[in-house]
Write a structure and sequence with these properties.
The chain is an alpha+beta fold. The N and C termini lie far apart (45 Å). 9% of the residues are buried.
């Protein structure tokens, strides 16, 4: 974070602030939060890599079914914070070899494995109980006020 701060980048949270240690949130020029996490040792890569997109979801069961069962993503890790009343789900498209690694790993090992990956990862954040409120919804960024627009997927046959 010191390198970015020396370049004038502002931070919402520095690595050792708040209850979540070991990660930082920098702010881009439009005020979007950029989560910055230390990469695992031995990946052979230096510098920054776009690793994940986080989206808040109203109903974790419906969202997991959509991304896993309809778009073919694999749930790599889950983290549940009962006291804070939220859960995190990390999904990605994996090769067959990666699927075997994830299947053989413990939950803790899969959380660490996320920091070695170069696959794009989708992080779904679910606030417990939001699915029970019929009027509850998240702003999708495509209605006023405009903001975040979309995430993108590649497919072999757009018409299939």
């Amino acid at each position: 974070s010191a390198d970015l701060e020396s370049k004038g980048v502002k931070f919402q949270k520095r690595p050792d602030e708040g209850r979540m240690k070991g990660l930082a949130f920098a702010l881009d020029p439009d005020g979007y939060w950029l989560e910055i996490i230390r990469r695992a040792e031995g990946t052979g890569h230096k510098g920054y890599t776009l690793n994940q997109t986080m989206m808040r979801v109203k109903d974790s069961k419906k969202s997991l079914e959509f991304y896993r069962d309809h778009l073919g993503m694999t749930v790599i890790a889950e983290k549940h914070f009962a006291e804070a009343k939220f859960s995190l789900f990390f999904l990605a498209h994996l090769s067959e070899d990666q699927k075997k690694i994830v299947a053989a790993n413990t939950a803790e090992e899969n959380s660490a494995y996320l920091k070695t990956m170069f696959n794009p990862v989708l992080e779904l954040t679910y606030n417990h109980g939001s699915e029970e409120d019929a009027d509850f919804h998240y702003h999708n960024g495509n209605t006023e006020p405009k903001g975040f627009g979309h995430i993108g997927f590649l497919v072999d046959d757009l018409n299939a």
